[in-house]
Structure formats: C-alpha cells, structure tokens
Amino acid sequence: MDTLPPQAAPEAGCHGGRDTMLAAAQAAGKTETMAGLMRDYPRGPHDQPQSMCPAFGSLRVGLRMRRVATILSGSACCVYGLTFTSHFYGARRSVGYVPFNSETLVTGRLFEDIREAVQETAKPADYDAVVVINLCVPTASGVPLDLLPRQIDGVRIIGIDVPGFGVPTHAEAKDVLAGAMLRTARQEAEAGPVARPQGLVEGEPTIALIGELFPADPVGIGALLQPMGLSVAPQTPAREWRDLYGALDCVAAAAVHPFYTASIREFRAAGRPVVGSGPVGVEGTLAWLEAVGQAANLPASRIGLATARALPAIQGALGANPIRARITLSGYEGSELLVARLLVEAGAELPYVGTACPRTEWSEADRAWLQARGVHVQYRASLEQDVAAMEEVRPDLAIGTTPLVQRAKELGIPALYFTNMVSARPLFGPAGAASMAAIVAAQTRGRERFGRMVSFFEGVGTRDGAGYGFAGKPADPPGFRERQRKLRAARAKAEEAVGS
Ligand code: SF4
C-alpha cells in the first residue's frame, strides 16, 4: 500500500508543530515556496513566531492600499483573530474570507471556492488588485494560488502563501506582499506603458524609502535630500497600485527597514542600487546621505551641501536633549538598531538591543557602529533573550514588546512598548533627535513610583498564581507540582527510549 503524504488537519495551526506543517506543505507541492521563504526569512534561535500571527503583516499592507481587496484563506479561528486585529488598528474595510472544512480541503474544492471569490471580487470599477493570502493550513495543504488567473478584466490577482511556519515575524510578512506586488508592477512596466504615478515631477530624481515609517519621517527625509536635488519616491509598502511604478522609477532605493528582502530583490531587478541604514543621529545621517548621494551618482559637492545643512541641526537637537539613562531595547518592527543608534548618540547607556528580525546586509553598518560602542546586538532575539538581558542589566528604562514590558513592570522597572515609541514620533533627522529624549525622561521619572507599586502588591499572586476570584493567594493542591514533575520526567524518559 502506498504511504499517504502527511496531511495538514484543518484544526492544525500555530500549535500543530512546525515540522508537521512543513512536511505537509512540501508533500503537497509547496517545496519551492517553502524554500523561497526559508531563503528570504531565515530562522533564528526560535522557530515559531513569538509575536502576533505573521500573516497580519501581509493583511495590513493590503488593507492600507487604495482600491485593493484582500481575501484570507485559512482556519476560521485565525481569520477571526486577524480581522479583529485589523479592525482594532482601524482597517475600516471588509476582509474577504473563503471558509473551508475537511472535505473542501481534501477534495480541492477550496481552490475552486477561492477562484469563484476572486472572480466575483475582481471588478475594475472597484479594484486595481485582489490579494489572496493562504494562511497556515491551506499552505500546508498545497492550495495552489499560483494557478489563479494573473488578472481578470485588468484587475491583478496576487496570491501569496504566508504560513506561520515559514515567515517568522509579521514584519517580514509585510515584505511577502510588498515584494509580490513590486514584482507584478515591475513586469508590467517592463512590458509597456503603465499608469502615471501621482505627483510625479519629470526629471526630478527620487529615492524610494523601504519600510513603514512615521508619517512625518518621509517629509523630514525629503528635506534632508533636497539640497542634493533629490526627492522622495512613493514608499514601499505602497498606498496605491500606481505608486509601485513611482517607487521602481527611483534612482536608488533606501532599505530603511532592513528586512524587505523580496522587495529589495525587485528594486535590484529593476536596476536600482540599494543603500542600507537610515539618517539617524549625526553619524548615521552623515553616512546615509553620503551613501545615497553616491548611489545617485552625485558629485561630492552636492552631497556636501546636504550634510552641511543637516548635521548642525541634528547636533543641536541632540545637544539640547541629552538622554541620561541606562536602557535596554528590543522589538519586532525592524527599526530597533536605528532607534538604538539614536539613543546612544543622545547619550544613553545601552548594553543590549534585540530584534526579532534577521541579520541582513542592510543593517550591517548599524550593527558595526553599535558593537564598536559596546552594545550587544541580538538578531532574531527571542523573548527569553530580551527578558534575560533586561533582568541582568536592570535598566532605568526597558523598551520592548508587550510581554517584556509586563515582566519589567513586575520587577519595578519603568518600561515602554517599542511600537508605541517608534510609531508615534519621528525617528530621522533633527525631528528624530529632538523627540526621543522627552519620552525617555518622562518614563524614567516613574521609577520610584514603580518601586512603590511593587512593594504595595508584594505577596499578591504572580504568574500561574495570579487570578481573580480568590479570597487569598492561590495555593497549589498538595503534591500537585511534585506529581507533575514526575510525569514530565517519565515522559522525557519514554521519549528518549523511543529515540534510542
Ligand atoms: S495563520 Fe497565524 S494564527 Fe493561524 S495557525 Fe498560522 S500562525 Fe497561527
């Protein structure tokens, strides 16, 4: 009897086991897709996402684009979580969903359902593109989105696989969709005339910024570039389809967020040089303006004009807003190293920076700069590594993800959610230099208050002993922990015996 390939059960998911899901996906014909994801988004010490479902990154990129419909194909519980999060973040539009069950999955009917949904949605009066996102189970089951029509009545159909067992962070999932769209747009532009990007100024060379930035940042970067005669191209991820052509039309691309591997591949395929890092602090801005100017083939005198105008203002802002605090920094946005540079230039003592994103050539300059100043840089940092660093350093301020902030507060350490810090204020140029100090000062002032809170709650149950509805501190049933310990030891022994 033939051996059946491993099947992804409809209820499998984040907790179904990465190896099982991967084996199922490969057996179902997704070997090439999975190899591509592995190449673009290499894994690190942790193999499972430790933040929200990665597909949220792709979903968000689709939802933020004008005249783009987004359809999810996945388990209902995943889709519930993803739509909930989308609306929490103000999506204000519908997320399409093609449901499935064991039968439609196994018989291939799901693919037909997706095709019908796409046919129904792709109306040129409403949309420029329809995005279909395969979540974990449809990817593991080999639902072949590449067999969807590439366009229907001029509406592009973009099908992507974004499984949690192949894309480690939601940051990188943004790149999966941004890269797929750039690829289509590049092929269209190569094939013939395309729609004119909005706001295009003929003859004005532009720089395409890669990464989701605080809205004022592209404007600030535009001011830094202006003395060189450069302006800012539409950003990646784009806000509307024709912006993709505008971005590809740049003279050089700037990988401000360094994990957009697929997008960068498209810029390179279009013949555009790509520079890494970003204009943070005095040294970062100097190096970045020089790199951008050289990539744009500008004479040294023009580059000198830009640096002469930008640097004194940044120097002044940093001098006027010094940071005197010991800080640990971690996050999953991809801009952690840039924020770290700015903090260090402003005077912070920063022993540790962790990023959930991988090491790429686009953050090499930042890594080298930080390490030369004694900062430990941890790529693909796990939550455990971030927490261990914070516990060891005992900083005046811990900046990190939600669970890290929670742990810091338990210890009485002032803490700040990274995303709130970077998404609510500028990071680049003089504006970035001025904005960081105020928030650090405001947070570290609370240290004494945190200490009081810890002593006030001393003795109240924590971790598995925490909860509501107890008259006193929750207590374990007698002997419970010891019985569990013995059970675990017996299980481990049995597994060892099977392996030998
Ligand atoms: S799609 Fe997201 S939520 Fe669903 S199983 Fe995969 S990683 Fe988990």
Automatic annotation (TrEMBL):
Source species, domain of life: Bacteria
Keyword entries, A-Z: Bacteriochlorophyll biosynthesis, Chlorophyll biosynthesis, Oxidoreductase, Photosynthesis
A Pfam family this chain is assigned to: Oxidored_nitro
Membrane spanning residue stretches: none
GO cellular component, one term: membrane
First-level EC class: oxidoreductase
Chain ranges of the Nitrogenase/oxidoreductase component domain: 53-440
Its EC number(s): 1.3.7.15
Pathway the protein takes part in: Porphyrin-containing compound metabolism; bacteriochlorophyll biosynthesis
Signal sequence segment: none
Protein name as annotated: Chlorophyllide a reductase subunit Y
Species per Swiss-Prot/TrEMBL record: Roseicella aquatilis
Gene, per the UniProt record: bchY
